[in-house]
């Protein structure tokens, strides 16, 4: 066990992970205040966060509402399923990775009826099949759910096309944009999204502690009496925030202060476009460098987003992911294990307060580790 973390002023490891991520010093410094949850200053921070999130989604105020929810991202997803599907509702879940699978598990747990269309993790969903499934279950499917960037592989799903199909079928549309929101340009209304979920510790570069839902107000208002959970009740959470500006139950005050700072830093970087440009550069530098070293990506480049990249384990007798991981970790470079079900992969995230120079540093570290492991690819 390294004890570096106990040395005051020591530099943290760089997290090339899908979250929690490397955050800026100023975001971490924003945590260093104790504010009461009913403090007028804290209430104005919540209001500012909610307004800024609606703007980030490209939405008009009044048409959409941003609702922070305590817990990790999964809690916010569960808040939508448990609060916004009517008792006799049925969800069409479109799956091409582990986070889509999690939606299935959630509906099973909540005893919500669903149909699942499952696709291989290296392919996009089939819009024609989605359309015919919606036709087949016309009047029965009340909701369509999909993940935007499937963090399992880094694939970006065509949420706008599928949103149009959901709308045409009269279904509400739910998008898990956890690992894309804030870094992949999006117009929530143009994509026909009724509920979008993301969390504090992904592309907005805050620290973990809450997720948030951006909901079409008209859809949210029809959910009265549907909630299957008290703490995750989305409509009640919104009513509380609208009523006295406060959370119903203890909010992660420090985390919200840090998130507000992270939003200001996102705006200073040029908003979603600015952040997208930095992440894209990180991705390009990473993939070019990795290919030069002999690694291959799991996805075809045309399907690959710039958020996170899955690399195949090299076919080499000296390869060991554990050894590779540990040696990089000893250099303060943290990569991520794979999650693909039918191929051995590891993942490298391009998101967080990471610059191109950090990616170059990672590539140097990988080159050194390969030499140590006698891994000529
Ligand atoms: C990170 C992530 C989640 C939620 O993860 P938590 O660990 O609950 O914060 C959900 N969906 C996607 C696509 C993600 O990337």
Please describe what this structure looks like:
By secondary structure, the chain is an alpha/beta fold. The protein has 2 domains: 26-267, Type I PLP-dependent aspartate aminotransferase-like (Major domain) (Aspartate Aminotransferase, domain 2); 271-373, Alpha-Beta Complex (Aspartate Aminotransferase, domain 1), CATH 3.90.1150.10. The chain is 40% helix and 16% strand. The chain has helices spanning 25-29, 40-56, 73-84, 98-110, 127-136, 159-168, 217-221, 234-244, 253-268, 271-293, 321-329, 356-373; strands at residues 14-15, 64-70, 90-95, 113-118, 143-147, 149-150, 155-156, 172-176, 195-199, 210-216, 308-312, 333-334, 336-337, 345-349. The strands form 4 sheets. Strands 2-10-9-8-5-3-4 form a 7-stranded mixed sheet, with helices on both faces. A 3-stranded antiparallel sheet has the order 11-14-13, with no helix packed on it. A two-stranded parallel sheet has the order 1-12. Helix 2 (40-56) crosses helix 9 (253-268). The protein is globular and about 60 Å long. The mean pLDDT is 96.
Brief characterization of the structure:
With 377 residues, this protein is α/β, with parallel strands linked by helices. 40% of the residues lie in helices and 16% in strands.
Spell out the key features of this protein.
about 375 residues, alpha/beta, Aspartate Aminotransferase, domain 2, Aspartate Aminotransferase, domain 1, 7-stranded mixed beta sheet, 3-stranded antiparallel beta sheet, binds pyridoxal-5'-phosphate
Radius of gyration equals 21 Å
Rounded average pLDDT: 96
Unreliable stretches covering 5 or more consecutive residues: none
Helix content: 25-40%
Supply the number of helical segments.
12
Report how far the terminal alpha carbons are from each other: 30 Å
CATH topology of the largest domain: Aspartate Aminotransferase, domain 2
CATH-assigned homologous superfamily of the largest domain: Type I PLP-dependent aspartate aminotransferase-like (Major domain)
Number of domains: 2
SSE pattern: EHHEHEHEHEEEHEEEHHHHEHEEEH
Bound compounds: pyridoxal-5'-phosphate
CATH class of the largest domain: Alpha Beta
Number of E-state strands: 14
How is the main sheet built? 7 strands, mixed
| Overall SS class | alpha/beta
Q: Under the CATH scheme, which architecture of the largest domain would be assigned?
A: 3-Layer(aba) Sandwich
Q: In one word, what is the shape?
A: globular
- Strand ordering within the main sheet: 2-10-9-8-5-3-4
């Amino acid at each position: 066990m390294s004890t570096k973390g106990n040395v005051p002023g020591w530099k943290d490891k760089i997290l090339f992970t899908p979250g929690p991520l490397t955050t800026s010093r100023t975001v971490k410094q924003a945590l260093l205040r104790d504010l009461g949850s009913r403090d007028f200053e804290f209430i104005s921070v919540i209001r500012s966060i909610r307004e800024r999130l609606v703007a980030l989604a490209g939405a008009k105020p009044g048409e959409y509402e941003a609702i922070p929810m305590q817990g990790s991202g999964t809690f916010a997803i569960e808040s939508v399923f448990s609060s916004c599907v009517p008792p006799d509702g049925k969800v069409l879940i479109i799956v091409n990775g582990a986070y889509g699978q999690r939606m299935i598990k959630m509906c099973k747990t909540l005893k919500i009826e669903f149909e699942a269309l499952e696709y291989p993790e290296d392919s996009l969903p089939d819009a024609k099949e989605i359309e015919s499934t919606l036709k087949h279950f016309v009047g029965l499917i009340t909701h369509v759910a999909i993940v935007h960037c499937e963090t399992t592989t880094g694939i970006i799903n065509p949420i706008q096309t599928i949103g149009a199909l959901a709308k045409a079928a009269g279904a509400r549309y739910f998008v898990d944009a956890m690992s894309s929101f804030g870094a992949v340009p999006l117009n929530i209304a143009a994509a026909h999204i009724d509920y979008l979920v993301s969390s504090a510790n992904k592309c907005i570069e805050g620290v973990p502690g809450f997720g948030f839902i951006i909901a079409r107000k008209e859809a949210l208002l029809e959910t009265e009496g549907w909630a299957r959970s008290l703490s995750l009740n989305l409509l009640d959470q919104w009513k509380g925030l609208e009523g006295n500006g406060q959370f119903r139950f203890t909010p992660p005050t420090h985390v919200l202060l840090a998130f507000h700072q992270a939003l200001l830093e996102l705006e200073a970087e040029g908003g979603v476009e600015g952040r997208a440009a930095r992440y894209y550069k990180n991705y390009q530098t990473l993939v070019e460098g990795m290919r030069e070293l002999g690694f291959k990506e799991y996805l075809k480049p045309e399907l690959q987003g710039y958020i996170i990249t899955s690399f195949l384990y090299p076919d080499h007798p000296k390869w060991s992911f554990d050894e590779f991981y540990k040696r990089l970790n000893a250099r303060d470079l943290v990569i991520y294990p794979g999650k693909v079900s039918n191929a051995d992969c590891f993942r490298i995230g391009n998101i967080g307060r990471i610059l191109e120079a950090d990616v170059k540093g990672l590539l140097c570290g990988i080159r050194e580790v390969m030499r140590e492991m006698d891994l000529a690819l």
